[in-house]
Amino acid sequence: MAQLLRSSCRALSGGLRLACSKPPHSALSRSTGARFYAAAAAELKRSPVYTEAPPVPKLPQNRPLPLSEEQVAQYFREGFLICPDFLDVAQLDDCLVAVKGLVDYVAQQLYNSGRIKDLCESAPVLQRLWLLEKQFKGASVLIHKAGVLPEEFQRVWSNEKLLDAVTQFIGGNIAGHPVWNLRSKTPHTEQATVPWHQDNAYLSPDCENTLQVTAWIPLVDANQTNGCIQVLRGGHSSGLTAKHTCCAGDTWYVDCTMPEMEKTLGVSDKDVVTCEMPRGGVLFMNNAIPHRSTENRSDIIRWSLDLRWQDPGLPNGFYNLKDTVAMRLADQPDYKMDFTEFAGQDRTKLQMDRHAKKEDSEYFETTIAGPWMERWGITNPNRHTRALKSGDLAGWHKA
């Protein structure tokens, strides 16, 4: 039945996508927000952006394309593509050095404020944050919320080989999406275990005609023991966003049940693919493929990055809070990207220094709330949903 439904969805020539532009979030109550999105969903039309590859591009200096035609075809056919040994591990080593600095910063702030007694300075980067978490529940959330984009991460995001691959998916105009994440999957932690969802469920519906390419990049080997990504092969084919609920357990994550995905997306547990990957590998996904991140049952932290790109001329679904950053422009082959304004590193450091004052507890807040809660409505209230203040969404952080 699931296969039949998926095949029928692929045969449709239209698409279920939103024709509206800006949802009036500042004026939405939670119930009004849910009604807005329900009404918007009824006006959507299906789009082929998730299933049809663009023309084969030509790269500058006649560089060879990093992906074969079959790999590109698989990406559009199945909604994901695993590329082992895609990146130089030396670049990932640099990222782990940057991670070590970020963890040290958090440790110092927790220690200086009297929230922990042991800095755990001798612990390796694959364990230190977990040890801090045992002293201050939510230490890993502080890393997630900081949003600091070190130069080492910037170099991966703008990696030539990665951008060449993205060109094969979306064409020559490429922008970095404002949603990027450093993931600290600490062992046996609910807030590091992400349930089934589609990335479109966290974004406003106006971007659902936009193909957003995600690269999930583990900084250590990712396997079933320390937690890896699982996808539902072909769940993107209809182009639909299934109904999600908010929020899962004591987290800020939306959740989509298997019966709902079988009904709406035509997939079932028979379509689950477990994406174990070595360090240096990249998992490419789109914004419509259902996926989840499984529990870390090891004794080390599984660090990873997820980075996103799209056409800069299309809606990004970020609720008009932040624009994309141009990385390549087809009509400007010599275009040089600039992360300065996008990353805002100096402003972020000033903000973090301000929060780190002992009398200011804002830095140590471990709740996360955002407009995706308004989109789906709150069926499971928790401390994160209670932190939501309608119209005050400028500081939200996506799962």
Give a topology summary.
Blueprint: H1 2-11, H2 30-41, H3 69-78, E1 80-83, H4 89-112, H5 128-135, H6 139-146, H7 151-157, H8 160-170, E2 174-176, E3 181-185, E4 194-197, E5 213-218, E6 229-232, E7 245-246, E8 254-255, H9 258-265, E9 272-275, E10 282-285, E11 291-293, E12 302-310, E13 325-328, H10 340-343, H11 345-355, H12 372-376, H13 383-386
Antiparallel strand pairs: 1-10, 2-12, 2-13, 3-12, 4-11, 5-10, 5-12, 6-9, 6-11, 7-8
Q: Which term fits the overall shape?
A: globular
Q: How large is the count of helical segments?
A: 13
Q: How many whole angstroms does the radius of gyration measure? A: 20 Å
Number of separate strands: 13
Describe the sheet with the most strands.
Answer: 7 strands, antiparallel
The first-to-last residue Cα distance is 32 Å
Explain what the structure shows.
It is built from 13 helices and 13 strands. Helix 4 packs antiparallel against helix 7. Strands 1, 2, 3, 5, 10, 12 and 13 form a 7-stranded antiparallel sheet that branches. Strands 4-11-6-9 form a 4-stranded antiparallel sheet, with no helix packed on it. It has a two-stranded antiparallel sheet with strand order 7-8. Strand 7 (245-246) and strand 8 form a beta hairpin. Helix content is 31%, strand content 14%. The two termini are 32 Å apart. By secondary structure, the protein is an alpha+beta fold.
